[in-house]
Amino acid sequence: MRRYLVTILVITALIVISGLTLGFQNIKLSGFERGSDNPLGLKLGLDLQGGSHLVYQTSLEDALGNQIQPTEAQMDSLRRIIGRRINETGLGDPVIQILGEDRLLVQLPGVSDPARAKTIIGETARLEFKHRQIDVTVPVVLKPSSIKSIHIGEFPETLTDEAGDLQEIIENPLADLPTSSAELEQIISTSTDDTLVTDTVDEANKPESNSPDNSNAQEISFLVIQLDDEAAETLDLVIQRMIESTLAYASGLKSQYTVNRLQVSISGKNEVRTVELPLQLIARVPDTNMFAMALITGIGQPIASSIDKTKELFGPELEFELVEVIGAIDEDVGLTGDDLSRAYAGTQSTTGMPIVNIEFNAQGAKRFGELTRELLNTEDRLAIFLDEEELIAPGVNAVITGGSAYIEGRDFTPDRAKDIAQLLEAGRLPIPIELVQERDVDAILGADSLKKSVIAGSVGLLLVIIFMILYYRIPGLIAAIALILYASFLLTVFKLIPVTLTLSGVAAAILSVGMAVDANILIFERMKDELRSGRTLLTSINVGFNRAWPAIRDGNVSTLITCAILFWFADTLGASIVQGFAATLAIGVLISMFSAIVISKTFLRLVATLSISRKTNWFVPVGKKFLPKSSD
Amino acid sequence: MNIAAKRGWFFLISAILLIPGIVFLIIAPGLKPGIDFTGGSTITVEFADPVDQQSIRASLESLNLSDTTVQNFGDNTFFIRTKELTDVQKDDLLSDLQDQLSPSGYNVLSFDIVSPLVAQETVIASFWALFAASIGIFFYVWWAFRNIPKPFRYGTAAIVALLHDAGVIIGVFAILGVVADVEVNTMFLIALLTVIGYSVNDTIVVFDRVRENIIFAPNRSLEANVNLSIGETIGRSVNTSLTLMLTLLALMLFGGQTLRSFLLVLIIGVLVGTYSSIGIATQIVVAWEQQDFTRIISRITKRKLPASE
């Protein structure tokens, strides 16, 4: 008994691990994450869940037009750039993998008609360097005659219509403005603070039923102006641009970016005050030519504590001026990926911080030098675009005429620097690719195949178990238990590694189940022989296992050799399906050996210690005459 | 039972199994390679309105896509194979089929494109993989049987049995290709590999008994040892293949259309693989020991010698 104690403990531990792994759909253990939405949280191949499998081949030519192989770094860049493009389209959770030397596999689970993805993937990368002008001020010119009225007050809640009746304004875009200074400050600061913008835009859009009733609540004064149609149109366009830039900013696709603001200067009674307002503090009164602007300073304070005090400050003779502050204008300077000769990640020699090195060719160096001269000592930035999406927009701290520079960033990690360098490389030397294989499987067909495979697998396993128990009796029962454990261990390993389950994997699993059963049958037949020759049950079990072992070992080793060779040869395109088969089969064979040798053996020995072991007949197959061996 | 004495019969049975397939391979177009091996496109499409195979063929011809194959998968689902299509061509083809045959619409279940370049590589890679796997198994068996005389023969016999099984399956599919338009694809290759794995495993189990019996009674004739070993392992062979057949038949009954021809390969493979371990692998070892082959060759050459003079 004690001899098996350790083995039994190990088996119990494995059963518990297996139960836990399969019992929870998703597993998260400090950085170790497994699971999916599929049954048991297994990873399914495209043939079982539907999706698109695309294989691209690079078609790179040298100067003479001969086909050349891309370098490893180029393939890496290609993988990253395509990954980036697919992620931007939001086409699920793609798998992008380099196959062999010049091929790229793109798998799009759940996408059964990848026409859009294919268009995006097939594009040739375009890298552009632009001059980003920051906070460009453009006065909003309004003819004096176009201004119908100016006053300071609260946001208009009523207005007089053409018939002279008072009408209530139902939609008041600025009615829910928070009145506490702290919250106002948050809104004001959206123009410069990266992290807050998304939150507050959302918040400003959310209708708040109970507006905060703080003790430091202050009354907000609005400058309310009424314009003629033409001027209203002009100001509306300014507001539209503010909306666009705020949305672009909130989408998070831009770094180092400021949103458009509107500068409002009010003068009257020798008092001049200027406030800079983000989108959230300006509104056109619906269905009118009236515009309301909250008079709130950069620190979130109203310029005076009440409307009356504000009115008093400026007196009745009000004047105002509006200036549009455009957060960023990207100006083409004719510097593109063609001018870049190299980009690579490195570390800064003195600080050791991760950096991205860039080197331009002669023509690029000249343009880059001019650009840096223009940018130096300004807020302006060098905005780098890949496929019209901003990659990074650093500032410039020296005029660089030698054509080689580096980009540093406070938030740079070595990975981030490498990522940027690879994307720059991808844009510098775009690699043309062509589609060489496509396989689209409809999600319904995939789900159907999965369902049928699961049913068929369960029925098959059940039939085998029934056969084993009916024919081999007690050992058969033990083999059945071992087989169920085998199946759950197999799924556990598939989930933990994780192995992507495909139809070819199902084939491998069938074969390995067959081998697991075969190992048990080999052992039981040998046991039977030993029992026949008159040995005790326990001896028969031990001898049976020892005799069966060489056959099990040699059979399984030859299968493992086949798997290794297939895996190795399959490392090219058409055979990625073969590779999955080989990997699945190898795992299955290893677990089946464990199941037969350790689990079956331990359980059989345990049963041999029970009183049932005296009924030796229950340990030999049905219908076999219990005779001593005839010859040897 | 003296099974080894009947080895001539086994060889005859195998010849009967292999020859029709070989004939079809050589004389008829042979194996019908799928797009995985030739390049091209396939579409599996389910039509909303009742459609028959003939009208699809006619429509495809009217689109100047004459070099096509159409198979009925049942449930108004058809498998169409044609040349490598672009996205535009595919959409045109499907909308034309809709206009002509199924105005209520269609649902594309799967769509595949393989470029001829890739297909060619797949053929080469598959061939080399099979070749290398055979060599690897040969050397392992040779090494594993190093403790008994002439281990080289066991390695060779295992490979011959393996090729025999592969040959039977390829032959069956050559016939099916001609009579039922069944194509071979990567899944066929996987199935073939599975069968090879099973075949070798099964052969090794029988050889293992032979090895044990030779070591136990080295002076007994090989033929007697082989007979004894086959008798001792036949129960296991039957039971193992029976359990596998249970699983495979369950898959055949409940599994999807996608796996059908794949399972057919496995079912034939398990039957042939079990048979070949007894009827081919072990019999070759005996025949080699008895110098059957040299005897036959000399008999043929002796008979032919006078004729040639």
Q: What does this 3D model show about the protein?
A:
The complex is a heterodimer of chains A (632) and B (309). With 632 residues, chain A is an alpha+beta fold. Among the domains of chain A are: 2-43 and 443-619, Multidrug efflux transporter AcrB transmembrane domain (Multidrug efflux transporter AcrB transmembrane fold); 51-124 and 432-440, Alpha-Beta Plaits (2-Layer Sandwich), CATH 3.30.70.3400; 332-416, 2-Layer Sandwich (Gyrase A, domain 2). In chain A, 44% of the residues lie in helices and 24% in strands. Chain A contains 14 helices and 25 strands. A 6-stranded antiparallel beta sheet of chain A has the order 15-14-18-9-21-22, sandwiched between helices. Chain A has a 4-stranded antiparallel beta sheet with strand order 7-8-4-24. In chain A, strands 10-13-17-16 form a 4-stranded antiparallel beta sheet. In chain A, helix 1 packs across helix 14 and helix 13 (537-569) runs antiparallel to helix 14. The longest helix of chain A is centred in the C-terminal third of the chain and has 54 residues, at 443-496. The radius of gyration of chain A is 37 Å and the shape is elongated. The two termini of chain A are 33 Å apart. Mean pLDDT of chain A is 78; it is low at 190-215 and 626-632. Chain B has 309 residues and is α+β, with helices and mostly antiparallel strands. Chain B is built from 10 helices and 6 strands; from the N terminus they run H-E-H-E-H-E-E-H-E-H-H-E-H-H-H-H. The longest helix of chain B is centred in the C-terminal third of the chain and has 33 residues, at 222-254. In chain B, the strands form 2 sheets. Chain B has a 4-stranded antiparallel beta sheet with strand order 3-4-2-5. Chain B has a two-stranded parallel ribbon with strand order 1-6. Chain B folds into 2 domains: 4-33 and 118-299, Multidrug efflux transporter AcrB transmembrane domain (Multidrug efflux transporter AcrB transmembrane fold, Up-down Bundle); 40-113, Alpha-Beta Plaits. Helix content of chain B is 71%, strand content 11%. Chain B has helices spanning 7-26, 35-38, 53-62, 87-100, 116-144, 151-180, 186-216, 222-254, 260-289, 292-308; strands spanning 32-33, 40-47, 69-74, 77-82, 106-114, 183-184. In chain B, helix 5 (116-144) runs antiparallel to helix 6, helix 6 packs antiparallel against helix 9 and helix 7 (186-216) runs parallel beside helix 9. In chain B, a hairpin with a 2-residue loop joins strand 3 (69-74) and strand 4. The chains are: A alpha+beta (632), B alpha+beta (309). Chains A and B meet through strand 24, helix 11, helix 12, helix 13 and helix 14 of A and strand 5, helix 5, helix 7 and helix 8 of B.
